[in-house]
C-alpha cells in the first residue's frame, strides 16, 4: 500500500486512520530531512495503547513507552550492555548453544515431521529460536522453546507475544474512550498480563539466585539481568518494564529476517554457495564462528542487509515533532505533527535501488558505483538516539545462525513452488508459511556436521555420521541410532 500511495500521491501525503491524522513520508531525502530535525528527546509515538495498559496495572514504562528525560535516563542505563561491541560480543557464548540446539531441532523435524528433507513453517521454528536466544541473553535462562516438547507456560508466553502484536494495530483504529468496551481489548490486556507474569517470575528467580550466591560468598556473574539488578541504577519496577519491552523488540527481527534470507538463498543457489565458501574459508572444519569472525564475512553481512532492505520488519516508523515546527520538503509542519516514515516504499525506490525486486546482496559491497545508495534508503533499525536498542544483539543472532546453518545444510526451495509474499501485522512477516528443503552437505573428512548432546535418562535423537571418524566410533553411533529410546551417557564430540 505504501508503494501504491507513493505512486499516486508522490513522496508526501496526508492520511487519516481512525482518530489519527498522519503525514506520510516516502522519500529517502525527505526522511533524512525530517530525522535530522529531531529534538533532544525524539518521540516515536506515545504508544497510547501500551501506555494505557501500564497505567491500568501500575507498571513502569520501558524504553519503547517512556518519554522525555525519563526515557533518556532509561536508555542511558540500558544502552551499554546492548550496544557496546565489547559487551555484545560476549553474548556469542550464550547464543551459540541456542544455535546448536536449533540445528538439532531441524534434524529432528526432518526425521519426524517431514520426508527427511522438508521442514514446514521455517519462520515458526525460527521464532522459537529467536525467543530462546533473547531470553538467554536478557533473563539469563533457557525457556525450552527448542525442546521436542515445549513447556506449556513457554508456549503460552510465545502465543501472548504474537497476540499482543496482532491486536495492537486493531486497537489503535478506535478512539481511546471505546477501548474498555471492545472485546479484543480484553484479549490485548490478557496477553500483556501473561507477559508480565512470566517476566516477573523470571526476575524474582534471578534475585533469589543472586541472594543465595551472596549468602554463600560465591561470585555473582551474569550477562544482562544480573547487571541491571546488581547496579541498582533502576528500581525493580523499571527493570521489569524495560526488560519485557526489550524481549518484544528482539524476536521478530531475527526470526523473520533469517526466514527471508533462507527463502531467497534457496531461490538463488549461487548466492548460497558464495556464503558457504566464505564461511568455510573463515571458519574451516568444525570451528564455530564467533563475533570476531564476522568482519571477514562481507557476503554474510550483505545478505542480511539486502534481506532487511526487501523486508524491513518495521515497514513504517513514526515520529512526533515535540519541540518545534519543522520544514519537510516545501511545507512547514507545526509542533506535535505525527509523521509516518514509509521505509518499505523507500526500500523499493528504483532511484536508489536499481532492480529493487531482485535479491542482490552485492549491491552492499563497497565500491559498487552502480548500486550507490542513499544513506537513508534503508534504515531497518531506525536512526539517531531513538534507534533500535537491540540492533547489535539481533545482528549477532542472525550472523551466528546463518553462518553455522549454511555449513550444515544446503537450502532448497519448497518443491510445490509456492511463492511467499510479505504481510503487515503491525510488523512485516510472511503471509503464508515458508517451507524449505534442508539437504545435508557433504563434509570434509573429520568434520562434524552437528553434534548432539545426550544426557542420562533422555532418548537418543538422530546421530549424524561423517566419513573419517574411527570405525569403532561409527559402529557405536549406528547402534545407538537404530535402538529406539536408547539411554546413553553424555558425549559431545569424538
UniProtKB/TrEMBL annotation:
Pfam family, one: p450
The species this protein was found in: Scleropages formosus (Asian bonytongue)
GO cellular component: mitochondrial inner membrane
Protein's UniProt name: Cytochrome P450 family 27 subfamily A member 3
Needed co-factor(s): heme
Family: Belongs to the cytochrome P450 family.
Coiled-coil region: none
Residues reported to bind heme: 388
Keyword Iron: yes
GO molecular function: heme binding; iron ion binding; monooxygenase activity; oxidoreductase activity, acting on paired donors, with incorporation or reduction of molecular oxygen
Keywords noted in UniProt: Heme, Iron, Metal-binding, Monooxygenase, Oxidoreductase
GO biological process: C21-steroid hormone biosynthetic process; cellular response to peptide hormone stimulus; cholesterol metabolic process; cortisol metabolic process; glucocorticoid biosynthetic process; vitamin D metabolic process
Highest taxon in the source lineage: Eukaryota
Amino acid at each position: 500500500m505504501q508503494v501504491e500511495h507513493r505512486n499516486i500521491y508522490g513522496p508526501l501525503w496526508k492520511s487519516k486512520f481512525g482518530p489519527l491524522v498522519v503525514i506520510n513520508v516516502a522519500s529517502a531525502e525527505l526522511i533524512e530531512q525530517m530525522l535530522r530535525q529531531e529534538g533532544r528527546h525524539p518521540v516515536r509515538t506515545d504508544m497510547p495503547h501500551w501506555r494505557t495498559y501500564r497505567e491500568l496495572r501500575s507498571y513502569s514504562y520501558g524504553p519503547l513507552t517512556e518519554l522525555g528525560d525519563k526515557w533518556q535516563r532509561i536508555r542511558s542505563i540500558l544502552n551499554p550492555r546492548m550496544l557496546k561491541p565489547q559487551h555484545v560480543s560476549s553474548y556469542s557464548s550464550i547464543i551459540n548453544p541456542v544455535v546448536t540446539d536449533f540445528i538439532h531441532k531441524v534434524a529432528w523435524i526432518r526425521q519426524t515431521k517431514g520426508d527427511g528433507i522438508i521442514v514446514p513453517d521455517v519462520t515458526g521454528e525460527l521464532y522459537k529460536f529467536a525467543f530462546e536466544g533473547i531470553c538467554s541473553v536478557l533473563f539469563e535462562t533457557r525457556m525450552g522453546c527448542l525442546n521436542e516438547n515445549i513447556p506449556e507456560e513457554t508456549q503460552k508466553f510465545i502465543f501472548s507475544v504474537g497476540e499482543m502484536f496482532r491486536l495492537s494495530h486493531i486497537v489503535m483504529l478506535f478512539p481511546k474512550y471505546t477501548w474498555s468496551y471492545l472485546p479484543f481489548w480484553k484479549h490485548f490486556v490478557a496477553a500483556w498480563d501473561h507477559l508480565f507474569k512470566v517476566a516477573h517470575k523470571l526476575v524474582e528467580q534471578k534475585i533469589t539466585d543472586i541472594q543465595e550466591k551472596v549468602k554463600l560468598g560465591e561470585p555473582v556473574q551474569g550477562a544482562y539481568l544480573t547487571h541491571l539488578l546488581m547496579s541498582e541504577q533502576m528500581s525493580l519496577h523499571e527493570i521489569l518494564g524495560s526488560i519485557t519491552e526489550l524481549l518484544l523488540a528482539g524476536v521478530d527481527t531475527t526470526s523473520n529476517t533469517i526466514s527471508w534470507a533462507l527463502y531467497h538463498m534457496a531461490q538463488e543457489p549461487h548466492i548460497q554457495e558464495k556464503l558457504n565458501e566464505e564461511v568455510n574459508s573463515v571458519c574451516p572444519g568444525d570451528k564455530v564462528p564467533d563475533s570476531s569472525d564476522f568482519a571477514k564475512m562481507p557476503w554474510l553481512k550483505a545478505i542480511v542487509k539486502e534481506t532487511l532492505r526487501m523486508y524491513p520488519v518495521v515497514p513504517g516508523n513514526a515520529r512526533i515533532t515535540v519541540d518545534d515546527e519543522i520544514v519537510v520538503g516545501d511545507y512547514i509542519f507545526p509542533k506535535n505533527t505525527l509523521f509516518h516514515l514509509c521505509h518499505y516504499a523507500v526500500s523499493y525506490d528504483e532511484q536508489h535501488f536499481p532492480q529493487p525486486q531482485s535479491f542482490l546482496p552485492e549491491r552492499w559491497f563497497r565500491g559498487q558505483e552502480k548500486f550507490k545508495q542513499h544513506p537513508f534508503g534503508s534504515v531497518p533499525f531506525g536512526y539517531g538516539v531513538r534507534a533500535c536498542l537491540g540492533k547489535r544483539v539481533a545482528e549477532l543472532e542472525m550472523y551466528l545462525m546463518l553462518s553455522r546453518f549454511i555449513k550444515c545444510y544446503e537450502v532448497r526451495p519448497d518443491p510445490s513452488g509456492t511463492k511467499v509474499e510479505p504481510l503487515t501485522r503491525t510488523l512485516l512477516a510472511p503471509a503464508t508459511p515458508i517451507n524449505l528443503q534442508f539437504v545435508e552437505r557433504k563434509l570434509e573428512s573429520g568434520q562434524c556436521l552437528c553434534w548432539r548432546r545426550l544426557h542420562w535418562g533422555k532418548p537418543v535423537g538422530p546421530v549424524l555420521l561423517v566419513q573419517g571418524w574411527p570405525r569403532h566410533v561409527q559402529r557405536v553411533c549406528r547402534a545407538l541410532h537404530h535402538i529406539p529410546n536408547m539411554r546413553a551417557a553424555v558425549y559431545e564430540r569424538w
